[in-house]
Amino acid sequence: MAPKILAFESCKGKLFLAVLFYNVVAFTFVNDFHFLLHGHTSFVVNNGGQRTFTSVTVFSVKMRGGGLWQLGQSMTRRLAQADKTVAHRYFSTEAELKKTVLYDFHVANGGKMVPFAGWSMPIQYKDSIMDSTLNCRQNGSLFDVSHMCGLSLKGKDCMPFLEKLVIADVAGLAPGAGTLTVFTNEKGGAIDDSVITKVKDDHIYLVVNAGCRDKDLAHIEEHMKAFKAKGGDVSWHIHDERSLLALQGPLAAPTLQHLTKEDLSKFYFGGFRILDINGAHCFLTRTGYTGEDGFEISVPSENALDLAKAILEKSEGKVRLTGLGARDSLRLEAGLCLYGNDMEQHVTPVEAGLTWAIGKRRRAEGGFLGAEVILKQLESGPTVRRVGFFSSGPPPRSHSEIQDDKGKGLGEVTSGGFSPCLKKNIAMGYVKSGSHKAGTKVKIVIRGKAYDGVVTKMPFVPTKYYKPS
63, 118, 243, 400 - which has most CB atoms within 10 Å? Predict the structure, then answer.
């Protein structure tokens, strides 16, 4: 059964969407997948503190009262702040959704497909999101992340060109090494985060987020035209001919080693290689979005299905297909930012706690968009900071208010949920500087009630990146 898109407006004119598939109702608001009601064809709205169950059918939606549940309101606020071209893709109809080359494979294996950034993607399979999260930590997971955009910058000036757009010391990377970076705007805000790799001095490979693809490519193209007009030698290629798989967890390396002649034992976190895997010419990066050891594999699309099957077979069933729901839980446990939640165009890398990604040379020289704002924050400190929390009560969600113990506002939650590994609520958010230190007691307001919380260090679950001993 394909997902159905349901759209309606509240009496205040706010647009709200629900996705109906099988017996699960999911609410599509950017990237938070924790709002799932299993086994029900109804959901809850909040009307002046009174909970009202609202029937959902494929053809219509009825609602009593005037108020929308907090979830719908937060989705509306976030989309109102977002770039219009990005927001449009979250309101795609079923017919407009793109499909990866593994779409039929997902469906055949029980994947529950939902709209995500203009694509039909699996949110989960037969396992629950909690079980899938735990299996990734204990064994391994295979994710289809082909909705993300891989591209190459080439030419003798590709490094100085990219350094105008990102905070990383690209020139300082060794060939075959990569790092997380941030594309910034003139005000120092984050346009997107990206993993970039120096393949060699005249070739940079990078991957950008699916939800930011259009604006990222437009941003790069605009600046490339100006750069080339001044004589710069740089060109680009968007790798639409390739698919992207993420193999994560403790069994990632031993499983992949069965499929390549290359020795992976000397291939460390952040590294990049071009090699044959299962007979296919692949770009391999030792990175991921889970906090576990793992790889992202760029594979020619005609070889993607065979590679996915081979990975699952070589793991003897221990590595499992895993959807975006567990991927979100895993990245939250690892304390990793989700663009659109934890980073946006008005948030700087310093505020987001990504100062480590600003190269030492870049701090001295600047030269990237928004450098004046960012370097000033490095010197004097930001007014707000991203922090982690433990909390009591219901799991905190995006836009939940954070208060001090006297009820004064400190900031708001940007990501939150129940941690399958820790068996407790975890969250990230932004608070005023001075309230950001670990151990600071706070209140988190959920549906009008304040619950106890405490600022804690991140990651919540220790990372297991494969580094030299």
Answer: 243
Evaluate if residue 43 carries a pLDDT over 60: no
303 three-class SS: helix
* pLDDT score of 94: 55
Looking only at the bridges linking them, the beta strands covering 319-321 and 140-144 are parallel
Distance CA 303, CA 53 (A): 47
Q: How many CA atoms lie within 13 A of 260 on its CB side?
A: 24
> Per the structure block, which two tokens stand in for 263?
């020795």
Lowest mean pLDDT segment, chosen from 83-92, 245-254, 284-293, 383-392:
83-92
| Distance, CA of 331 to CA of 256 (rounded, Å) | 22
pTM of the model: 0.82
**CB burial class (10 A; 0-12, 13-18, 19+) of residue 413?**
buried
More confident position, 45 or 370: 370
Q: Which amino acid is located at 264 in the chain?
A: L
Overall average pLDDT of the 122-128 stretch: 98
CB atoms within 10 A of CB 324: 21
- Distance, in Å, from the CA atom of 126 to the CA atom of 65, rounded to the nearest integer, reads 36
Which residue(s) pair with 453 in the sheet? 391, 442
CB-based contacts of 111, cutoff 8 Å, min separation 6: 122, 124, 125, 321, 323
pLDDT at position 93, please?
53
CA distance 197 to 10: 46
Residue 399's alpha-carbon distances to 81, 414, 437, in angstroms, are 13, 6, 21
CA dist., res. 173 & res. 171, Å (int): 6
Amino acid code (one letter) for 24: V
Share of the chain residues as helix, strand and coil, in percent rounded to the nearest 5: 25, 35, 40
* Cβ neighbours, 10 Å, residue 462: 8
Q: Is 296 annotated as a binding residue?
A: yes
96 vs 85: CA distance, rounded Å: 15
Compute and round to an integer the Cα radius of gyration of the chain.
22
CA distance linking residue 280 with residue 273, whole number of Å: 13
CA nearest to 16, candidates 78, 76, 97? 76
